[in-house]
């Protein structure tokens, strides 16, 4: 196992770096592994010139471009801690992140410099630089002027390489501290498990401020000396046009449901692809089946989170079972325990999923109490996800622990109700939430996206009453055109809870 994250790149460099494409953009620009080495060195030098020291955070809120990858690798080479931020965050939100992380440098889009600079200065950030979606800005200029040789700053495996703030769909974002060893080990494990090689070409249409696009996708490419189409946004038609020149794609479930709407999605269009991977949110079993029927490919679903990198994966060879997130990855231990007592649960029993392994983060930035509360004494991390492990070892996710609805003293797992709703004719998808209710504490409530042929609320409720214990049945079923989702395609139940907070309040 490599110790310094950049050694992952060095260990897998092609024999002739200048002859091997690393990134090809939508516009057809090709950047090679030689460009990667030079440009990451230039960014490392530029960061040092700006006063960034080993261990300093480099906070980055910029649009996706190849330069962001070089900046990420430059930060790692300089011994700094890369801290990417969602491009959707407002100045008020950025104020929180900068105040919390106290970076030495904040890199933002040139167009946002005017509102962001005072925010950064107020948070005590020493330097502000810019980088735009075309990879230009004051930081790129500094890199242009810097040398292309750089001696990597030595780091220990346990030193931080990155901080990623949790997406905060359930509360205030926390900074997950990820070490060199966390990131390098998971990249190596995934590259091996998914049989990546230098012959692979990955379609990369994910954002790079999140673990999926930055670590799963980019690091796996780096760990195998492969190439990627690096696309600034998800455009199904563009992706279909690139597929004949690619071998793999990683996406969130929304990528797959949107591609299924394209008539051009055929076995022929996907015949050069050897692997489709999905994660970050549950892939509906129906999407898995439809995809297989349309293309002949079984999507490989895996499960991970910001704090842990990837924990489980359906097998490369062997059954990829729809509706499951597969088996524990090599070196990763996964168990299910009773959330109240901590007792280990047998196969098929639903409880809290806990994980342990070299992939699991070091803790929450400057939150020792929160960190202590989320780790068991034997080193297992409490994921907050509820699920079960079947007798074959496949992990099934049932929902977030915080999703659990307690109504009249009874526990209701939203996923169970959602599965029943999704099985009704005309229902596209559903989200079940608990809303404040004077009698029950929480009232089970469903929000559904339905086609015109779907039954009405009363008819649906009647059908559900025949299938679910009465306490699990929604008190109301609300209709929506779509469910609110974050950038990674996760349904934002907190938004639904806020929107409908008054439903049972008279
Ligand atoms: P994030 O930290 O933003 O990557 O979110 C991690 C959370 O996404 C996990 O704790 C799960 O709740 C959810 N998640 C990720 N992958 C899957 C999956 N394949 N199926 C179901 N939920 C998933």
Uncertain segments of ≥5 residues (pLDDT<50)?
A: none
Q: List the bound ligands.
A: adenosine monophosphate
Chain-averaged pLDDT: 94
| Amount of beta strand | 15-25%
Strand order of the largest sheet: 2-1-10-9-11-12-13-14-15
Count helical runs: 15
- Which class do the helix and strand fractions yield? alpha/beta
Total beta strand runs: 25
Give the overall form: globular
Distance between the termini: 60 Å
Radius of gyration: 23 Å
Q: Helix amount, in percent?
A: 25-40%
Structure, described:
The structure is a single chain. This protein is of the alpha/beta class and 506 residues long. Helix content is 29%, strand content 25%. It is built from 15 helices and 25 strands. The protein has helices spanning 5-11, 33-49, 66-77, 91-101, 113-122, 138-145, 180-193, 211-222, 236-242, 253-260, 285-295, 368-374, 414-422, 457-465, 493-499; strands spanning 21-25, 30-32, 57-61, 81-84, 105-108, 127-130, 160-165, 175-179, 201-204, 227-230, 248-251, 275-278, 300-305, 309-313, 327-328, 333-337, 351-356, 363-364, 381-389, 395-400, 405-407, 410-412, 427-437, 441-450, 476-479. The strands form six sheets. The protein has a nine-stranded mixed sheet with strand order 2-1-10-9-11-12-13-14-15. α4 (91-101) packs parallel to α5. The longest helix is centred in the first third of the chain and has 17 residues, at 33-49. Adenosine monophosphate (AMP) binds next to β13, β19 and β20. Adenosine monophosphate binds at residues 166-167, 211, 279-282, 301, 303, 305-306, 325, 383, 385, 397, 400, 488.
